[in-house]
Design a protein that fits this description.
It is a single chain. The protein is of the alpha/beta class. The protein is built from 15 helices and 24 strands. It has helices at residues 14-35, 55-68, 81-91, 121-133, 152-163, 187-196, 220-233, 260-271, 286-289, 301-313, 350-363, 367-372, 389-401, 403-409, 455-470, and strands at residues 4-5, 10-13, 44-49, 72-75, 94-98, 107-114, 117-118, 149-150, 176-180, 200-204, 237-241, 248-251, 275-279, 293-297, 319-322, 328-330, 334-336, 339-341, 344-348, 378-384, 416-420, 425-429, 434-439, 446-452.
C-alpha cells in the first residue's frame, strides 16, 4: 500500500486508492470523529471530488464506508475544496475531498476536514493509528459503492455568494480576463465571479481530459500557451487554479504567472493583515515588505494552520496564512467592503486572485506594474520529477551530516553563509542569493527554490541547482 499523508492530505496511486485504502481511511476518520465527539451517530459528512477519472469511484467507496460507520454522507459533487470546507463549516459537518490537487491523474488523494476546519498533523497521526489497527478488519476494508443526499447546488451557492462581496461592484469593468479552465472544478464559478465584477471574460482551454496544473511550478508549455492567449486576445490577466481549486494561478498581461507568495502578500495588504503564517519556502522579502508580523513554518497547510491557531490563542487579530503556491487561508474573520468575511482555514484560490485584480484596478495599474511595486527578491521554483524517495533521502542526509558536505555539494554555486533546515535545506549564500532543496511530501519529486537580485541571476542559480540534483548518485 503506497498511500500516506503528505503536505496536505492522504496521497497515493489512483490504483491503490480506488480499492480498500479509501474504505479503510474513511472508516478510521469516521471512528476518530465519533471518538473525539466531533460527530454523533447520524451526523452529516460532506463529500466532494475533482475531475480525475478515479475520483467518482473513490468518492462512492468513501460514502459507503461513512454510512457503514453510522454517519450520513452528503454528496457535494465536483466543487472546489474551499467551497466544500465552507459548506461543511456552515453545517457544523466534517468533510472529505477526493483530489490529488496538481499531481498527475495516475495519482489521487483524500483531504479530511473536521467540522471546524482542515485536520492537523495530530489528527493525521490519530487517524493513521486507527487505520493501522483496522488493517485486518474485513468490514473496514470492504469496498462498496453508495450515494449521498445531493447538495452540490447549495454548497456552490454559498461559496459563490462569498466571492461576490469581496470587491466593489463594477470594480473590473474594462478589464479583459482570460479564464484557463482546463480540468479544474473551479472553472465555471471563476467565469461567473469575474463577470459579476464587470470584466469581459474569455473562457480558455477547457478540457474533458484531466490536466495537472502545478501553480507553484508552472510548466514551460503552459507559460507559452498563456503568453499566446494574452497576446492574441489583448488580455489584462489570465486566471486559473489547480485541479481542486484551492491554489491560484494569476498571469499578468504578458501571460507571465505571478508567484504564489506575491499573491499572498498582495492579499495580506488588501485585507490589512496583522499576522501572516507562511512556510519557509515563501519569499524571504516578506518580512521587510509586508507591514505585518510573519511566522515561518514547514511546508504544508496543516503547519500553516497550526501557526495561525497559535497566533489566535495569543490574542492576535487579523490572522491569515498562505503558501508559496498562493493558497490563502483565513485564520480569523475579516471585514471587506463592509461585509464580514468569515474565517476559512483552508487554501482558497479565489480571494488572492480577486485581491490582485482588484488592487491593480483600483490603482489604475497593470498586473505587471503592481508586481513591480513590491520590492521582493526575484524568486523561482522548479522540480525534478521521478526523483526516487530513496535518492532524495540520501541527498538530504548527506548535506545535513556536516557543513563540509554541504559546502562541497554547493561548491559550484558559491560559499555558504547561513543554513535553515525547517523543511529541507535552505541556504543563504555569501553573496545574498538563496537556494533551497526540499523533497516533495506528495510525490517522488525534488523541488528547488532560489532567490536572487535579478531574474537572470535567479535563472542561472536554478539551472545550476537542478544540474547538481540531477548529478546526485545517491
Amino acid at each position: 500500500m503506497t498511500a500516506k499523508f503528505g503536505t496536505s492530505g492522504l496521497r497515493g496511486l489512483s490504483s491503490d486508492l480506488i480499492g480498500a485504502v479509501s474504505a479503510l481511511y474513511s472508516t478510521a476518520f469516521a471512528r476518530y470523529l465519533l471518538a473525539e465527539g466531533l460527530a454523533q451517530a447520524g451526523s452529516p459528512v460532506v463529500v466532494a471530488r475533482d475531475f480525475r477519472p478515479s475520483s467518482p469511484e473513490i468518492a462512492a467507496t468513501i460514502m459507503a464506508a461513512l454510512r457503514r460507520a453510522g454517519l450520513e454522507p452528503i454528496d457535494c459533487g465536483t466543487i472546489a475544496t474551499p467551497a466544500l470546507a465552507l459548506y461543511g463549516a456552515s453545517l457544523g459537518a466534517a468533510g472529505i475531498m477526493v483530489t490529488g490537487s496538481h499531481i498527475p491523474a495516475d495519482r489521487n488523494g483524500i483531504k479530511f476536514y473536521r467540522p471546524d476546519g482542515e485536520i492537523n498533523k495530530q489528527d493525521e497521526q490519530a487517524i493513521t493509528r486507527i487505520a493501522d489497527a483496522l488493517a485486518d478488519d474485513p468490514e473496514a476494508n470492504l469496498v462498496e459503492s453508495a450515494v449521498g443526499d445531493e447538495q452540490e447546488g447549495q454548497a456552490s451557492a454559498l461559496f459563490l455568494d462569498r466571492n461576490l462581496h469581496i470587491l466593489p461592484a463594477g470594480c473590473l469593468e474594462g478589464r479583459r480576463i482570460g479564464i484557463y479552465q482546463h480540468s479544474t472544478v473551479a472553472r465555471d464559478m471563476m467565469v461567473d465571479v469575474f463577470q459579476h465584477y464587470g470584466a469581459t471574460v474569455f473562457p480558455l482551454g477547457r478540457s474533458d481530459v484531466f490536466i495537472p496544473v502545478d501553480t507553484e511550478a508552472v510548466s514551460v508549455d503552459t507559460v507559452t500557451q498563456l503568453a499566446h492567449w494574452s497576446d492574441e486576445l489583448a488580455l489584462d490577466a489570465i486566471i486559473s487554479t489547480d485541479g481542486d481549486g484551492d491554489r491560484p494561478l494569476v498571469a499578468d498581461e504578458h501571460g507571465l504567472p505571478l508567484r504564489g507568495d506575491l499573491l499572498g502578500l498582495i492579499a495580506a495588504r488588501f485585507l490589512k493583515a496583522g499576522v501572516v503564517a507562511t512556510p519557509v519556502t515563501s519569499n524571504s522579502g516578506l518580512e521587510q515588505d509586508g507591514g505585518f508580523s510573519v511566522i515561518r513554518t514547514r511546508v504544508g497547510s496543516p503547519y500553516v494552520i497550526a501557526a495561525m491557531e497559535t497566533a489566535l490563542a495569543e490574542g492576535r487579530e487579523r490572522v491569515l496564512g498562505f503558501e508559496a503556491n498562493g493558497g490563502l487561508m483565513l485564520g480569523s474573520d475579516f471585514t471587506v467592503e463592509g461585509t464580514l468575511l468569515k474565517a476559512l482555514p483552508t487554501r482558497d484560490s479565489f480571494l488572492p486572485a480577486l485581491a490582485a485584480l482588484g488592487m491593480a484596478a483600483q490603482n489604475g495599474q497593470s498586473l505587471s506594474d503592481l508586481a513591480k511595486a513590491f520590492s521582493l527578491p526575484v524568486a523561482l521554483s522548479d522540480r525534478l520529477e521521478n526523483f526516487a524517495t530513496e535518492r532524495s533521502t540520501s541527498l538530504m542526509a548527506h548535506i545535513r551530516q556536516s557543513r563540509d558536505n554541504l559546502a562541497g555539494f554547493l561548491a559550484p554555486i558559491g560559499a555558504v553563509a547561513g543554513v535553515s533546515d525547517i523543511d529541507g535545506v535552505r541556504v543563504t549564500l555569501a553573496d545574498g542569493r538563496v537556494i533551497h532543496f526540499r523533497p516533495s511530501g506528495n510525490a517522488p519529486e525534488m523541488r528547488c527554490y532560489v532567490e536572487a537580485k535579478t531574474h537572470g541571476e535567479a535563472e542561472a542559480l536554478m539551472k545550476t541547482g537542478l544540474e547538481l540534483l540531477r548529478g546526485w548518485a545517491g
